[in-house]
Structure formats: C-alpha cells, structure tokens
Design a protein that fits this description.
The structure is a homodimer. The first copy, chain A, is an alpha/beta fold. The first copy, chain A, contains 14 helices and 9 strands. Chain A has one domain: TIM Barrel (Alpha-Beta Barrel).
Chain lengths: 341, 341
C-alpha cells in the first residue's frame, strides 16, 4: 500500500510534519504555459478535451510541486451536461442563454444523459493520474445553490435578483431545480471517485449572498445531502469551501465534511480551537498577499504557520483563487515558504 | 423632558412595545420626490445645501413615518473637507482624482479647516430637527478603513489592490492616513452631536474585504477609538454597521457600540441570545425581500418579528441599503407591517 501523502494525512488530522500546500485556481491564467494552451483553445474545449485538461492540471505541479493537484474543469459542466448551453463571455463570465426560470425551461434537460456527457471529466482524471506520480488529485463540483444561481440568473450580477425572487416567491420550484442538480452532482462526484481522485472539494462560491436562514435551506442542506449521498468506499476526504459562511457552522450541527476550506475573513486559529474534533481546516491567506513583495509573503506565511503549528489538520491555501494578474514568481515564494517550513 | 421614542428605547434595550423601524438609504433614488430634487442638483450639491439635505432627509418620514430619520449626507464628506477633491461618476461611484498613495499626497490636506468646511452638515441637522417633530435623527460617518479604501484606491474596485498593498507593504503610512481620518471623524461626530442628532451610526461597508487579522488592526481598532473619543454628554446611542464581520465579535472583547447593525448573513436570533448583555441589534432583512410581493414581505416580516419578540433591544432594518430600482409601495408594506405588529 502506498504511503499516505502529507495532504491526505492533514485531511485526516494526522499530520505531524509541515502542513501541505496547494492553491485554488493554481491551474490558471497567471501561468504563461497555461496562456499558451489557452491561446489555441477556448475554455470549454479545454475542459472537454481530456489530454488538454490533464496537461493544464499538471502545469502548476511541474512548476511548483504543490502537495495536491486539482483537476482542471468547471463547476458549470453539470448544467451544461444536463442540456443547458453554456458559453463564456469576456468581462461577463459564464452565460446561459437559456436560463431556467419556469418549469417549462426544465424540458431542455435530459437527466439520464448527463453522466455520459461528462465522461470527458473521468477520462481527464485517468490521464492526469497516469502522469501525476504520488501527488494526490482533487476532484470537485459546485454546490447546487452556486450552480443554480448562474443557471437561473443567466449570468451572475451582484444583486442575485432572479434567484432571490425565487427563494421568496417560488422556493418549491427552486428546490426542484436544485434537487436535479444535487442528484447529478452526487453521480458526477461518484464517477470522479471511481475514476481515481484522491479527494473531493465542493465549491459554494456564492454562499455569502444568502441570508443566514436561506443558507441553511439552500446551501447547508444540499451540501450535507451530497456528502451523505457519496459512494465513497475508501473514505477519501471531502473538502467544503463555502465562501463567507463558515462562521455559521458553530450555530448548526457539525458538518459532514472532513475539511472546511475557509476564506480570509474567517479567524483560522479560533476555528481550529473551537471546531468539531474531526474537522480539518484549509486556507485562508488573503489572496492579495500574492501581490505583496516576496519578503512580506515569506514573513506572513511563516508567522501564520508558527501559529498553526500544533494543529495536525491544517492545509495551506488562499482564502479564494489565484487571479490572472498575479506574478508566478510570487506564487513560487508562497509555496516554497510552506515547503521549507 | 420629552418622552423617549421607540427607537431610543430599543437602542437602550428597554423597549416593551413593537420594534422601531427605519431603513438604510431610506432617503434615496427609489423615491420619485427624491429624483425630482436630484434632477436639478448633483449629489454633492445636495449634501452641501442644508435646505436640500434637510428636505431629502424628511421625504421618507413624510411618506412612511419611519421611527427614525437618517441625515442625508455621505461618508466621503470628510476626505473632501480635508482637501481631497471628490466627484461622482455614473457606473463608477465616488472618484478621488488625487488619491492618497504616498506621504507627499497628504500635503493636499488641511486638517484644521475640515470641520469648518463641514459646517453645512451641522446646519442641515439644525434645519432637519426643526421640521422633524418627535422623530429621532441619526447622524453618521464612515469608519476610517472604508473611507481610506475609497481615498487610496481613487475609486473602489473589487480587488482593493492598492489598500491591500499598503496593508502588507506600508501599514505605518496607511495608519498615518487613518489616524487623520479617525481624528477628523471624531470631531465631525462631536459636532453632529452638538448640532442635535439623537443617535450616531458608523458605517464600515468594506469590512468584509479584510482578513480577520487585518480587521482587528484596521477596522475594529479604529471604530473603538472613535466611540471612546466621542464627547457624548447625554449618552446618545452609537450604532455600528460593519458589513460581513460581526461574527468576529464573539472572538474579541465586547464592542463599545450600543447597537450592532447586522447584515443579512448574520444569524440575528443566535446573536440576540449570545451577544454581550448591553448591546442592542439592528437589521437584518435581506434587501432582496423588497423585490418580493407584498404578501411575502408581510409574511417574512411577521415571522421574524415573532421570533425577536422577547428581545427588548431590536430595531428593524435591512441588512444593507435600499436600491434605486426598488418599489416605494413595497417599502411601504415593509414599514407598515412592522408598525402594525
């Protein structure tokens, strides 16, 4: 049996060594080698081409040797596979030209075809694993609320007026949409597990736009349902990133997640002291730290690692993803400071 | 001596009646009578003209008879009065064409002239009080971090790259800017108190963009300094609205504020049960509720008021301000539902 990696040991809160490090959106536009691939292929084609997805997944690992890789894919492949045409527009982000706003719109979906349509993801996982060596691979999906927000809004605007109207006026229909997304997400994650991923992360990027009460109904409930619905014979770790809302967890029963990925507003050390015994923590450096000078990056990372030293379930990451204008040399300093701690 | 209003009693946690209600940005563009004034005057001129500011402050009170009025003004009048030229640009918001980015930029400031330059605010308070009758008037200021963010960025973009660079690379200079803003804010609030406001609200609208650690240093610290620096002989209530960060308060020593104004992500009822005994709570309906139908508005307001019934220090408000495209009739339903509870 393979020796467990630092990353998996930290997810299981059994890491006596330095904490492992990876970064959200580590395979992305800040890397010149990514931009070279992207020049020739659009974003969706890259996701759908297993060779390209594997290549791009591996790029940051080759450059920085992070302690985990995350599959190059997108949270919106699920509604796309269900039958909602998706495109990306400069300055607007993902766009669904046929948003789901009433029961008739659901007729565009073919639920029994979704998983077959997503087979390119499972192939990408196999190709990636073949070249990845001992580095664990993280598979992922979006949480149903965040995916539904894109889907019913058409494209995401700050006010979330369409999905909030649904929450107030027609929660039953919104739940109907989210139930389909939830079931498809469970099947998608199960297939990622079968294809060989070593951990799963669920992204709830818009959680911070929900009122506390609605968060319980439309976010927490569905994330719990997904985790409990997984067919996970080897108990690979499940990480939940729920932006701007982990402070709510102490008010609820403990999460079923193995790891909570915290954004930068969350007090990591206090969370480490108060969180349910079984939960590991990931995060939560301010992404803006990557804009700072190498000297400051080194100083801030070391200071934080000293504070977290006695917590065996800590995985270094940012509070959110890397941005296209970030300097790859600064990312290097961030990763190497952790690795040489 | 005048009988204490519902609003003041609730701020003091001594209200046995229905909770009082007012709404952030209640004097604003959603009102046709506001737009009629605005057609003839730009935003800054309206702030600087005491008659117009008083008129606009009174508009929502005439229409809805809220339990408190809030002075029509802006959080950026302080840097403007210090000497930084301010203008408003459609789709961009407030713009400082001469942002403060290095010590030389501070030469544009004349600290000893700021309060005299702000005399139109104190005049507006006097004019408003003359027509307001028994309704209490809330004065306000921005918290130094939020004001500094506008000032050093030039105009606010989502990434806050300039002010975050300062936090990392030159915190001493940022504190120097914030110290001046803090002292001027204290003087400005003291003058508002002298002019007759019945309560003060401090707005930290960008608190949710600070990491937990930086929030302590750049937000919490300065807000505490302001409250402790007030010359407040009659102990008028001080309300703090710190968007996206009140969950941090239990991790710190209790706030010096009398009232915390919570945004919609905060669990109001749990906060009411756990918060320091002396603190009242304001908020925190999802602003999107105003987009919902009158029937749903009524239902949601009533449900929440039932839950909060035994809390003597509760003031109804939204989690953030009213928006220009909101329907004045829906605002009416919101206010009247509270008033007839």
């Amino acid at each position: 049996m393979q020796k467990k990696s630092l990353f998996i040991k930290a997810c299981e809160k059994k890491n006596d060594d330095r904490p492992p490090v990876w970064i959200m959106r580590q395979a992305g536009r800040y890397l010149p080698e990514y931009r070279r691939v992207r020049e020739k292929h659009d974003f969706i084609s890259m996701c759908q081409n297993p060779e390209l997805a594997a290549e791009v997944t591996l790029q940051p690992i080759r450059r920085y040797a992070m302690d985990a890789a995350i599959l190059f894919s997108d949270i919106l492949v699920i509604p796309q596979a269900l039958g909602s045409p998706l495109r990306f527009e400069e300055n607007k982000g993902p766009v669904f030209d046929k948003p789901i706003r009433n029961p008739k719109d659901l007729e565009q979906w073919k639920e029994n075809e979704a998983i077959e349509n997503l087979s390119y993801v499972y192939k990408a996982i196999k190709y990636t694993k073949e070249s990845l060596g001992d580095t664990p691979l993280i598979g992922f999906s979006g949480a149903p609320f965040t995916v539904a927000a894109y889907l019913v809004e058409g494209y995401v605007q700050k006010r979330f007026q369409v999905i909030k109207s649904m929450i107030f006026e027609n929660p039953t229909f919104l739940k109907q949409i989210m139930d389909v997304l939830c079931e498809t997400t469970i099947a998608h994650l199960n297939n990622q597990i079968k294809a060989g991923v070593d951990a799963i992360q669920i992204f709830e990027s818009w959680a911070n736009h929900l009122s506390c009460e609605d968060w319980k109904t439309f976010s927490y409930y569905y994330i719990e349902k997904i985790i409990k619905g997984l067919d996970n014979p080897e108990n690979i770790p499940v990480i939940v990133f729920s932006k701007g809302s982990h402070f709510l967890l102490p008010h609820l029963k403990p999460t079923s997640a193995d790891v909570l990925s915290l954004d930068e507003t969350c007090p990591m050390l206090d969370m480490a002291k108060t969180i349910h015994k079984s939960v590991a923590l990931q995060g939560n450096f301010d992404p803006a730290l990557i804009y700072a000078s190498p000297k400051i990056i080194e100083k801030k990372v070391n200071e934080h690692l000293v504070k977290m030293k006695n917590f065996k379930g800590y995985i270094v990451n940012l509070g959110h993803g890397l941005l296209p204008d970030m300097d790859p040399e600064h990312v290097k300093v961030f990763v190497e400071t952790v690795k040489s701690f």
